[in-house]
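Reminder to self: tokens first, then the designed residues, so the page reads top to bottom the way the pipeline ran.
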């Protein structure tokens, strides 16, 4: 069973990725939420080129990725869930929940630790917010994330199918919750009870540090609500809010070469690093 999952993995991932990307792009054209400031051609070519760089570097850097390691752990009896007797649906459910919690915590850490923020701020430096923003991560952040994910998989021993489901859903929700689409408010209100919506995640891309440091979730919205990092709406409203960070606001900064060297440019401390100070000042 794990072997058949592994051989089907590339096809499933590519099909879901392309299908959801095309669907979001069409939806953005049909019902946009915000006016674009930057021509699509600049952002899309560079954001998509970054995906290619990220994918190649990830394949070259790791001999085995998360689904492969989960299959190996299942075969060899590594990790917690491979050593307890629970029904498959329980271990699949628990695994998907805990993997989602792990990336929530990892996201908080990438905001809180200076050196990691240097890598992660590139995701925030996109000057518009659309489906391709959801793909814009520095390759070193991608590699560190995979390292953390592999450690979680080794310790937890999740079923390979749970890891595949988790990654495919995460990929789809990242495209969806960055999309520049206009969901009617009542629909958004119901949807965000179970999934992070574009209006919820857009708050995280605000230049206002109190908003940048909120809504860390990617798939499930519950961790933000449980752990006190939830902000329902941006103070200036979705149309008027400023997207990005204060550093890196020129069009040239959106090019691939500038994105790649961004972690070593300028001071580490953008306003996003001072949330506690700003909140305390405000109180
Ligand atoms: Zn972030
Ligand atoms: Zn984002």
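Designed residues (283 positions):
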């Amino acid at each position: 069973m794990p072997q058949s999952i592994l051989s089907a993995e590339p096809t499933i991932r590519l099909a879901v990725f392309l299908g959801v990307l095309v669907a979001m792009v069409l939806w953005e054209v049909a019902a946009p939420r915000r006016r674009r400031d930057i021509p699509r051609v600049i952002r899309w070519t560079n954001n998509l080129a970054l995906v290619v760089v990220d994918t190649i570097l990830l394949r070259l850097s790791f001999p085995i990725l998360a689904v492969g390691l989960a299959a190996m752990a299942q075969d060899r009896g590594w990790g917690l869930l491979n050593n307890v007797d629970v029904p498959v649906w329980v271990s699949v459910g628990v695994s998907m929940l805990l993997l989602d919690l792990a990336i929530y915590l990892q996201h908080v850490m990438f905001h809180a630790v200076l050196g990691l923020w240097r890598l992660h701020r590139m995701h925030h430096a996109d000057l518009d917010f659309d489906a391709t923003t959801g793909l814009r991560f520095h390759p070193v952040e991608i590699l560190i994330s995979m390292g953390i994910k592999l450690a979680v998989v080794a310790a937890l021993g999740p079923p390979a199918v749970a890891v595949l489901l988790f990654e495919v859903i995460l990929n789809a929700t990242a495209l969806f919750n960055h999309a520049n689409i206009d969901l009617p408010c009542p629909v958004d209100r119901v949807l965000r009870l179970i999934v992070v919506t574009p209006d919820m995640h857009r708050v995280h891309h605000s230049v206002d540090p109190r908003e940048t440091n909120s809504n860390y979730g990617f798939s499930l919205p519950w961790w933000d609500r449980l752990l006190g990092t939830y902000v329902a709406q941006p103070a200036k409203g979705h149309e008027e809010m400023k997207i990005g960070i204060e550093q890196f606001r020129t069009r040239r900064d959106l090019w691939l070469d500038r994105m790649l060297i961004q972690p070593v440019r300028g001071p580490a401390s953008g306003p996003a690093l001072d949330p506690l100070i700003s909140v305390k000042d405000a109180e």
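Residues 2-30 form the longest helix (29 residues).
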